Amino acid sequence: MTTSQKPQPVPSAPDFSALWSSARRLHPTYLQLAREFVLDAPAFSALDESVDTPDQETVIQAQQWLKAMDDRIQVHQLRQFLQTNSTVDRDGLVVMLTHFLQQAKHTDATRDKIDFLLVQYFSQGAPTELDDNAADIAYVANGLKPVLGNVELKTPVWLNALDRVLESARRCRSLDEVLHGGILEQGRKAKTQAGDLFYLPVALVAFTRYGYLMRRVFFRLMLGDLNSILDGLNELEEQGIATIDCRRAQFSDKEPVSRLRMICQSWKVMFQAEYSSGQPLRMLVDLRASVDAALGRGAEAEGGEKAAEATAAFKASLQKAAPEKTGAPKKARAAAAGAAAGTASAKKIMEVATETVEDLPSGFSVDAEDAPEFEVSPAAPEWNPDEDLPPRKKK
Q1: Which residue from 320, 386, 391 is spatially nearest to 167, judged by alpha carbons?
Q2: Of 301, 274, 294, 285, residue with least CA distance to 232
Q3: Region at 185 (left for phi over 0; alpha for psi -120 to 50; beta for the rest)
């Protein structure tokens, strides 16, 4: 038999039964998303029927329906829905992750959904008392085993950039430093620059660990800022000051101190939902600056100095002990094997918040169109792709 006569490998046939089962699991969740965000959802009644083994044409149509819904559902909508809704359990997250990971073509939106879902899945299974140092790459890989299977933990050099971003974030003393120091922007650019290498199992584990630990940094800083504001409000009342100028935080120029205290207590409840888009975070930063200014702490100058220090420290960390360039792998396989309990709904959180405060500023919104998980300043320093990351592969 000549070379040309050798039998060619036959591609594996799609598992229509598994595809149908996945579509039926995703169907009610997607319909809930469509209702909550008023999306134009095409009807596909076959998924409502109790049919275990439909014909292949029906399964193909179900896949087309899912794709149409994936195109409509934005990343920030999926994030808000899953972080403020308890209807999707960890098994449901596995189904959703498998659905996205097994897609033949991954768009930037698909990548961001996978990134969020992995962090959400790991976060829900991680113990509350887990120490940051204990959440190493091996621990996270073990937590993701139901999704990714056994992962070879030989971490590529270019993923070391994530540890330097985390190190810079941990040095921050306030949200203002994180938001305006360019730190979060670097993590997002690392994900973008990774290209197809993002889907390497070890990279998925590394980015999940990064996202989980960055969340914890954020919530610690949010709590610290809120406590600082409350302490400042108490100090203002002791000085006999009843109102302060909070226009920079979208409040009035004579905002009652007592009302600000109630709002901060409401925010403590809201931020427990582990969902905060850019607008509330900026308002929190600006409110702290307003309180500091009312106390004569020179917050504006101090805030500018801190932001500059954070940016300079981050740039220095990138240049310090730069690893030897080894070059990017020639091929990247987008492979992933296998397929805090949900919090109260966003509406319920707002109800709790407004029990004491009737009218929060209109700008305070949990839902922000196309908002990243944590908003950053557009004035962030540019990422140098030659420092650590491989060139992005062309599709």
Answers
A1: 320
A2: 294
A3: alpha
Using CA atoms, how far apart are residues 246 and 89, in angstroms rounded to an integer?
41
Dist CA 202 CA 334 (whole Å):
11
Note the pTM of the prediction, 2 decimals: 0.70
pLDDT digits (tens, 9 = 90+) for 335-378: 333 322 222 333 333 333 333 333 333 333 333 333 344 433 22
For the chain, percent helix, then strand, then coil, each to nearest 5?
A: 60, 0, 40
Residue 120 burial by Cβ neighbours in a 10 Å radius (0-12, 13-18, 19+): buried
What are the structure tokens assigned to 368, written together? 């922000």
Alpha carbon of 334 to those of 110, 159, 212, 337, 395: distances in Å? 13, 16, 22, 10, 12
Name residues whose C-beta falls within 8 Å of residue 348's C-beta, 6 or more positions apart in sequence.
none
pLDDT at 230: 93
| C-beta of residue 188 within 8 angstroms of C-beta of residue 376 | yes
Per residue in 329-344, pLDDT tens?
333 333 333 322 222 3
